[in-house]
Amino acid sequence: MVRGTLTLGLVALATLAACSSGGQSRSGDGVYAPGVAGEADIDGLIIGHRLMEAREYELALDAYTLAAGQQGLNVDTLSALGSANLMLGRLGQAEGLLRRAVALDPDFAAAWNNLGVILMERGNIGEASEVFRRAFATDSGNSEQIRANLLLALARLGDPLYEDPNENEIFQLVRRGAGETVLLTSL
């Protein structure tokens, strides 16, 4: 619905521009050439993060794809694309993207955590607990969300040293903000 309205608005704007005297026609002085497009003022990652918080996962995926086009497939865009795919239930795609992200930056705790969430969803509890351990160590134990995910994974693994604090607890995604790891959303 939003895309259709946006497309219709752009077509109307282009039509009006073509009808005006200074529109898309040549001037009498010489050849008409449009100006060079400048850098976009839109940060697809910021927009995508806001859309994820609003639970608009498909639109967030579009924004993250825009960010990947602007910035390339770096650790932040790969992690964001993976998280959006996870929320859309595309576990295979999400896992591949997050594995690429941690390969690019082995110190990216949020990407390790989110990979652990995917592994738990897929039933790979042993590997997930190891991935959560890596996330926890990489983060130096500073994130309560990563700690909670690790404890829950260990409890589900049946480790006798850990009790399940709450069997109804849900694994949490985290994202990297301005140099920090913050709660993104709960599944």
Give an account of the 3D structure.
It is a single chain. This protein has one domain (43-186): Alpha Horseshoe (Serine Threonine Protein Phosphatase 5, Tetratricopeptide repeat). Helix content is 59%, strand content 6%. The model is unreliable at 7-14 and 178-187 (pLDDT under 50). The chain starts with a helix and ends with a strand. Strands 1-2 form a two-stranded antiparallel sheet. It contains eight helices and two strands. The relative contact order is 0.09. The chain is mostly helical and 187 residues long. The longest helix is centred in the N-terminal third of the chain and has 18 residues, at 2-19.
Topology:
Blueprint: H1 2-19, H2 44-53, H3 57-71, H4 75-87, H5 91-104, H6 109-121, H7 125-138, H8 144-157, E1 172-176, E2 181-186
Antiparallel strand pairs: 1-2
What spatial form do the alpha-carbon principal axes imply?
elongated
The proportion of strand residues reads 5-15%
Largest sheet: 2 strands, antiparallel
CATH topology grouping: Serine Threonine Protein Phosphatase 5, Tetratricopeptide repeat
Number of domains: 1
Task: Return the CATH architecture.
Answer: Alpha Horseshoe
Distance between the termini: 26 Å
Trace the largest sheet across and list its strands.
Answer: 1-2
The CATH superfamily appears as Tetratricopeptide repeat domain
In the CATH scheme, the class would be Mainly Alpha
Give Rg in angstroms. 22 Å
> SSE order in H/E notation?
HHHHHHHHEE
